[in-house]
Design a protein that fits this description.
Trna Endonuclease, Chain: A, domain 1; 123 residues; five-stranded mixed beta sheet; globular; alpha+beta
């Protein structure tokens, strides 16, 4: 049975958080929301604030829809930049170095991830 899109997204975000923690990232916020939208993960490492967009797909859906990271199109990149600006202003973190990453998670049919790709400076 295939996972629902929402369940796949939730599982992908959980796996992305585990991946970031494993590599020494400090998770500051998860699913941060404002009127303009949502940031999946905001993390910090080596003095840089990192906005992480998580994209998850099941291995079976990749044939029809492509790799998870391919879904971060121009419109989504611009939205993430706007959200990051709002986040920086609302949290008082303006003036720090920032980076935009994408974590693409391919979900295994038996649970967990069959592949996690962390693309730094993706935007």
């Amino acid at each position: 049975m295939t996972k629902s899109r929402k369940a796949a997204g939730t599982e992908g975000e959980r796996l992305a958080q585990e991946h970031l923690a494993l590599y020494g990232y400090e998770i500051l916020d998860v699913n941060w929301r404002c009127k303009a939208g949502e940031l999946d993960i905001v993390a910090k490492k080596d003095g840089t604030l990192i906005f992480v967009e998580v994209r998850a797909r099941t291995a079976s859906s990749m044939h029809a829809f492509g790799a998870p990271q391919e879904s971060v199109d121009y419109r989504k990149r611009m939205k993430l930049r706007r959200l990051a600006e709002i986040y920086l202003l609302q949290t008082g973190r303006s003036g720090v170095p920032v980076r935009f990453d994408v974590i693409a998670v391919t979900l295994a049919s038996i649970g967990g991830a069959s592949d996690i790709r962390h693309i730094q400076n993706a935007l």
